Fold these 3 entries.
Entry 1:
Amino acid sequence: MFFQRHFPDEPALLGDRRYRFPRTRSWRTWTIDRETLFERWLGVCRNLPVKFLEIGSFEGASAIWTLSNILTHPDSTLTCVDNNHLRSDKQFLANLEASGHRSRATVHWIDSHDIRRHVPDEHFDFIYVDGSHAAPNVLFDVVNAFLICKPGGLVGCDDYLFKTPEAGSVPKPAIDSFVRLMGDRIEIVHSAYQLWFRKREGTPGA
């Protein structure tokens, strides 16, 4: 289902003085295209008690937008995992407090490789993978996302077409390898700068 909305030239969240996203704005990590994509695929979750997870939170733009616009049911929750290598923890927590949604967000300051020590398998309705851009780390994150996603749930991979190498590699080869290996266990629902897939019903977690 697609939700039609009027979008300004810049996401309204970035212009809200309650939050400061100086690096998010300059790095363009939250854009109109991302808002439109989130609305298109996640709008159906509005007012439902769903569980989302975000790998890589940075200053909190995507987390706060999702809490404000999609996770509107009082029992919906967001879990955030970030290794804090970019030293954005204080800014992120301050922005989360300012949003009024701090009580519905659980934050783990851990390496994403350790995520399955802290969250159960087949638990989340949606997982947003937006952490490391180095191919080996991306592959690890996408495999873990598949395992902790509920059958029928969605996984969104940000920066699929990211061009600047991190530790000598970029995300696309890792995500492409995962897609080839999974075959009909997943369904690609969107492929552009981001790649989103659905974990098919009846698919075993491992």
Entry 2:
Amino acid sequence: MTDPVHTSTHDRLTAPAHAAFRGTARVVGAIYLAGMVLGIGGNLLILSILGASDQLSSVAENSDLLALGAVLWLFAVAGDAAHGILMFPVLRPHGERMAMAYFGARVIEATLVAVMTLLIVCQIPLSIANEAAVPSEATTLEALSGVLHEAELFAYEFGMVALGVSGVVLCTVLHRSHLLPRGLATWGLIGNALLLAGSLLQILGLELNSIHTVLGGLWEVFIGVWLLTKGFVTPSPEAADPSAAGRAVGAGHSGPVPTARNR
């Protein structure tokens, strides 16, 4: 006979992952995939313009495309913030502090990338002023454009640091809670750890040419498809609570009820 108090508590902690949060899993999966498409599309537009030898002239000729690239990034940023909100009730039963850490890191990342897009858009009025500037003013505007570009790159890298932190926190909880297969959670943990370490190295001046983002990026695509099609995994009683079998044997034991925090 199983202790009814412990059984009902366990059901409250595990059942939502599969049933109540099935819709959440699909929305989060869709946001992962949409964010990847929007972010890559926006990045390609921005790099094609800001990567030109005469940056301000390129911006003046393609200001609409640059603004479009920034808007695509803002949509991706909104999805990043939504991740933190949507996943909070999913992660909270498995550790409130970890859920808060994930939410906070996602908000910080979204804020930093939003700052990056603002710095990018600031290139447009600079390019307009540059077209009517005398040579001495043009030199100053070009220097200011270069400073803004460097600031934009730093904002992006700091945003990727926050993304790496959020990914490590998320995959740690997913690994411990069995909400995803452990192999998939481990893949995400390694990929996000590489993203975090690589972004820190880039801030320190080491150019990695985005190689540190590949494993984590592939994981985001895979996890997006996985959540859309399969959702979260319902942990078995033994996996979710290793002491369940012991409690079943000692049905008369009236120990403390496990809380969401220490699970």
Entry 3:
Amino acid sequence: MAKEEEKKEAPPAATESPSGGGGGKLGVILTIVNLLLTLGIGAVVFVQFKKDKNSEKVADIQPSEEEHGGGGGHGEAKADAHGGGHGEAKAEGGGHGDAHGAPAKPKETVVSLEQFTVNLSTAVGATPKFARVVIAVEVPNEETSRELTQKMPQVRNSIIDLFNSKRPADLQTGEGRNFLKEEIRNALNSFLITGKIKAIFFSNFSVSG
């Protein structure tokens, strides 16, 4: 009876050994799977990390490219400022040259002389006649006006000599007075240097005696 019980108990011991070996294999498999999962997660993390680093490098490069691009824009600004802008300045300079080529007409000046009371030419024994007149002289610029003022003694002497040479009848007509104006203009222009007199005007003109 004892041997039969031993034989009966033996098989269960034999059946336990396979289950124990299967459990060991399962543990190895689970360990390998965990290791693979860990490696896979690590690989994913590493790839993501590399992507992040590359994106940071691109982000670092892009501002410098924009700065270089800005430098190109600055170069264009320089080209516009120094090339086009300077060209436009030259064009304006040409206009300024035109202004020099055709200068604006200087403002004319009228100089009023003091009143003249001058003896006219009369026959011997005739009643003396004289002319009383205010003369205005038109000059081309201020410089000629100053010269005329500085040479006033010569101006008055020339005018008096011309009136002294005229008879009263010579000044009774507009034609005669205009001829006298032309004579005065020519006489004064003969010694003026800075400019020429353009016109002579008479005012308060009268002949009496």
